[in-house]
Amino acid sequence: MTGSAPSLRLTPPRAPRQQRSQASFERMIAAAEELLRERGNDDFTLQEVGKRGKVSIGSIYCRFDSKDDLIRAVQARVLEAVEVDQRAVIARAEAEAKNLRQLVALLVEGIADTLRHHAELMRPMMLRATTDPIVSAAGKKSYGELSDLVHNVMLAHRDEILQPDPERAVHSTFRILYAAIARYLGFGSATGAAWEGGWDELKQDLGKMCAAFLLSAE
Asked: CATH 1.10.10: does it fit domain 19-64?
């Protein structure tokens, strides 16, 4: 059998409009989320999803072509929730910060806490992204959108950035702070490095280091 490239469908199936069907659909999603949280990976069957969500296998296949489709639908829900929370964090930081140093501290703390809040579902999704191109593409898209938002907010303080290339400096700052948080939370290949050190200390030190870099001319 010749393999064909998977369709990069990044949006989940629409929830049905009929109340009874919608309730069943939501139970499928909720059951899959519970299993992902409990297992820390996607090592479960649709039969387990059906039993947990009190829905039949036939009902699941009416909504999803496969377990892969169900997991991608869960990922879409998770990324949507993360985006809502991150946008609120960024807006609050932008409104409260009086200078770049305060902005960076607020952004680091807010982004870190949001990722930690959603970590139980993001962790298995990032693990799956290493083998699933659709999950990987959706994750990269979400990361890119967050990166753009943070860049725009930081570059609004361009006159305070002393690095010779402010755009490069902001890009590097976000990439490094995200990588440090992801490592702590055990995202992707960093699973074995999770929970090293104190969470509050990590946020405080990251905020100071990122601000020091942006405010340095060297």
From this structure: yes
Neighbours of 152 (CB within 10 A): 12
Q: Is residue 179 within 8 Å of residue 116, measured between CB atoms?
A: no
pLDDT tens for each residue of 118-175: 999 999 999 999 999 999 999 999 999 999 999 999 999 999 999 999 999 999 999 9
The ranges assigned to domains in the chain are 19-64, 72-214
- CA–CA separation, 181 and 199 (whole Å): 9
DSSP code, position 158: G
Superfamily (CATH) of domain 72-214: Tetracycline Repressor, domain 2 (1.10.357.10)
> pLDDT, tens digit, for every residue of 38-52?
999 999 999 999 999
